[in-house]
Amino acid sequence: MELFTLGIGHYSEKDVQEVARAFTGWGLKNKAFDFNPELHDSDSKTVLGKTGNLDGGDIIEISRR
Hints:
There is one protein chain. By secondary structure, the chain is α+β, with helices and mostly antiparallel strands. The protein has one domain (about 1-65). Helices cover about 35% and strands about 20% of the residues. The protein contains three helices and four strands; from the N terminus they run ααββββα. The relative contact order is 0.20. The mean pLDDT is about 90.
């Protein structure tokens, strides 16, 4: 998060933990990214003030703002 998106000091350790949860369910299948909803943590997460059943795509969008 730090080097490629937000910069130093714009997020907390809790944000990092929640981002990790948001990316659960993602992996590789046949050399391509694949999302398995059965492995995704579908509980609510809060990242940079945004709350919901966030997934990897949501995190990318949030970090662009």
